[in-house]
Amino acid sequence: MLAQLSNVRLGDGEQLRPYWQRTPVLLTQALDPTPLIPSTETLLEILNDTALPARLITGDMAEGFTLSHGPFEGFRPPSSGPWTVLIQALDQLFPEYDALRTAMAWLPAWRFEDVMLSWASPGGSVGKHYDHFSVFLVQLNGRRQWAVGPRANQDTPLVPNQPLRLVDLAADDQVVASPGDVLYLPPGVIHHGVAMDPDCMTLSIGFRAPDAGALFETLVEQLDDSETWFRFDDPDRHTEGPSAAITAEDLVRTRAQLLNFLDRPGVLERILATRVTEPYLHEDPDVSDDEIDLQSVNQWRIEAGTRMAYTETGFAIQGIWCDEPPSASLRQLADTREITGIETRHLSPTERHGLIAWVQAGWVVDADLD
User: Fold this and answer.
1) Concatenated DSSP letters for 90-151?
2) In this structure, is residue 284 part of a structural domain?
3) Which among 163, 187, 207 is the end of a domain?
4) Are 260 and 361 in a shared domain?
5) 65 and 196 share a domain?
C-alpha cells in the first residue's frame, strides 16, 4: 500500500528522508495551497506573453494523445475533450513557488531543477509514464486521481505511436489527491494522474539527476590542450596476438587512463558543479555596464533562476567554474542565496569582481528592489 503521512511539511527532512529515492508517499494536508493558486487569467497571460516552455496535451490513454509546444499566440483552452497545459520554470516568476523548494533545506539546493504547473480539465492527463528523477506533486486546486507503481526498468516497454513516452502496466495503488496534498515519487516509479475537477492544478517540483552521458558531455566540453598529454600508452606491452585484436590488457590500460584523469585534483568537482549549475532556461543575459557599489545595497539576493554550488576547491554559477576555494562569505551566499552589502567586504577580490559581474548580468539582484 502507498504510504501516507498526515500534516508533514515539505521541509520536514526527518520525516521525509526515509522515503527519498526509495518509496512513494502521500503527504495529506502538507500545506495551505490557497496563496499558491494562480488565476486562469494569469496563466493565459504567461502562455501568451512569456517565453516559458509550455505544452498542450489533449486526449487520453484510451484514444491516444496529441502534443503541441509553445510559444502560443492567442492561446485559449480547448472547448471540448480532456486537455492539460504544462508550464515549466514557474519558480522564476512566482517567489511563492521558489520558496517551496528553498523550504526543503534537507536536500541540496543544487539538486533542484524547476517547478512546473499542470493545469487540466476533467479527464485531463499526460498519460501513464515515469521520470528519471524525484518529484513532489503538490495539489493546488481541484482533485487529481493517481495510479502509482510499479517501478520501471530498462526493459519496461513503451506504448508505440505516441508523442509522449508512455507505458501501460497495471498500477499498484490508487489514491485521490485533494488541495494541500503532496505526492512524492522516487525515480522510475510509474504514475498516472487524471484531473477530476475543472481547473485542476498540480505543481511538480522536480530535481536534477544528471546521467553519465550528461557528465561525460560536460567533461568533453571542458577539455583543453593540456589533456592531450593524457594519452593511451603501453610501454610494458608483452603479449602478441592477432593484429586487430583489442585485448583485455588494453581495456585495463584504457580504464586506468580514464580513472587517472578523473582522479586529477579538481576534475570531478568541476564536472559535477558546472553541470548541476547549468541554468534551466538558456538565455543570453542582458548585461549592464552600470557601476556597482556592493556595500551601498542593504541586501543582495541570488535570483530564482540562478544556480550556484561550491566544493572545497572552487565554485560554479550558471555553469561557469571558478578555480578558487570559496571564502566563508561566498559559501554563505550560495547556501542562503543572500548576502548583505556589508558582508561583501569579506569576499576575496576575485569573488567581489565576480559578484559585480553577476549583478550586471541579473543573476544577483537588490533584494529591496526585486
Assistant:
1) GGGT-HHHHHHHHT-TTS-GGGEEEEEEEEE-TT----SB--SS-EEEEEEES-EEEEEEEE
2) no
3) 207
4) no
5) yes
Look at the block and give the residue holding cell 541554468.
279
Q: Kindly report, residue by residue over 166-195, the tens digit of the pLDDT.
A: 999 999 999 999 999 999 999 999 999 999
pLDDT value for 220: 84
Task: State residue 314's pLDDT score.
Answer: 96
pLDDT of residue 241: 77
- Using DSSP, state whether 302 is helix, strand or coil: strand
Q: How far is CA 91 from CA 9, 97, 302, 330, in A?
A: 19, 5, 13, 23
Give the chain's mean pLDDT: 93
To the question of pTM greater than 0.85 for the whole model, the response is: yes
237 vs 115: CA distance, rounded Å:
54
Domain residues for the domain of 217 are 212-264
Tell me how far apart the alpha carbons of residues 119 and 201 are, in angstroms, rounded to a whole number. 5
Count the domains in the chain.
3
Count each helix (H run) and each strand (E run) in the chain, helices first.
8, 18
Question: Do 309 and 276 meet the contact criterion of CB atoms below 8 Å apart?
Answer: yes
Dig out the grid coordinates for 219 from the structure. Answer: 567533461
Give the tens place of pLDDT for each residue, 274-303: 999 999 988 777 777 788 999 999 999 999
Q: Are residues 221 and 184 in the same domain?
A: no
Residue 148 · residue 108 · CB < 8 Å: no
C-beta contacts of 221-229 below 8 A and 24+ residues apart: 222/270, 222/271, 222/274, 222/321, 227/261
> Which is more confidently placed, 282 or 364?
364
Are 51 and 110 in a shared domain?
Answer: yes
Sign of torsion over alpha carbons 15, 20, 22, 23: positive
**Residue 54: strand, helix, or coil:** strand
